[in-house]
Amino acid sequence: IDGGTYLDTGTIEIEGKAFKNYGDKVYGELDIKKAFAVSSNCAFINYADKLGADKIKSMAENFGFNKEIKFDLPLATSSVLTKNITRTHVAAVGMGQGETLSTPFQMALVAASVANNGNLMRPYIVQEAKYDSGLVTYTAKQSEFMRCVSPYTAKKVGEMMEECVESGTGAGAKIYGVNVAGKTGTAENGTDKDHAWFICYADDGDKKIALCVMAENAGQTGSDICVPIARQLI
């Protein structure tokens, strides 16, 4: 996939089912970096169909999907491709739909792992506790949770996320003097009001943060409602 191009005509057919881009857009010839930036459903359905269910499921599990994540608070398990694994379902998962269920926390971890060179640290809430006198009574111990991808792959995904903010659907998150990288999402949910998403990380040369903004049943795109919120948070 890397290095090749895909001709986006606005529609792609898998096993007789036609899939379209959001808003019936047609993007023309795209490499994977541009497809990511503009959020081309057709391109990623094509990639998913070529990769197949096993590779997609395995990579998702590298990021914590289909696994119980131990945390200070109870968490639902995010899942992907646990049933109905046909070419059509794989295609839908390829564009973030279909048999895909994720918590906002899970997607924040995805952003954090990319920002951290593919290495996901175990998440926790409290960094430090101390008395009024300043005596520290507790300090969280950082530990590796899982290696999601190689540093090379994390760098490539990070570059695509940067392009999304530079010239794509996440452009509203740009901040002078801060490197912001992200990915928008609009998730169908069986109602007429889609969920809106934006995951991102930001680095000002001193501090680095990762976050997920999800607007439930927003009826708008992640670009419209979540990106401005993320920018304010950053």
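(the above was protein one; protein two follows)
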Amino acid sequence: VILTMGTPINATLGATTTHTVSIQGQTPTVSFTVANQTVNEGVVATITAQLSGPSSLGVSVPFTLGGTATNGTDYTASASPIAIPAGNTSGTISVNLTADAIAEPNETVVATMGTPINANLGAITVHTVTIAAQVPNVSWSTAAQSTGEGATAVISAQLSQVSTLDVTVPYTLSGTATSG
């Protein structure tokens, strides 16, 4: 807004006769909508970045990925940055979690926001996707067997899938035979 003085009454114009007022636009903040989520292998985890309000400018939010899961093996993700077009209030990262049928402990994918363009960082700038542990089932190989006296009975347990963890199965003995 520009104010310009006209011809004054009972005064003369001084050196400064115009005044400019610049209206600064509001810069939105950008945050992840939640700090974490837990999902299973074989699904697509969606991480949402949310603006505090709509913007007349497009917003770009760079991000990095880390964590204990391996990119390309345990997951693939959409490329940085998150793009939020003008007038919109959110954008997403898609994390495709690989179903590898291998029992393993929890793994994580951690997305961390960098410095956004046309927005400021908000409260939640780190989001952790926890890939739920894959736990195998364990069963006896067979439900029953017969052996003669003096023979050795071999009883096997088997897992429903390969495991990256050692599995220990406690058991008890009972029945009509006497140990020893």
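Reviewer note on protein two: The mean pLDDT is 91.
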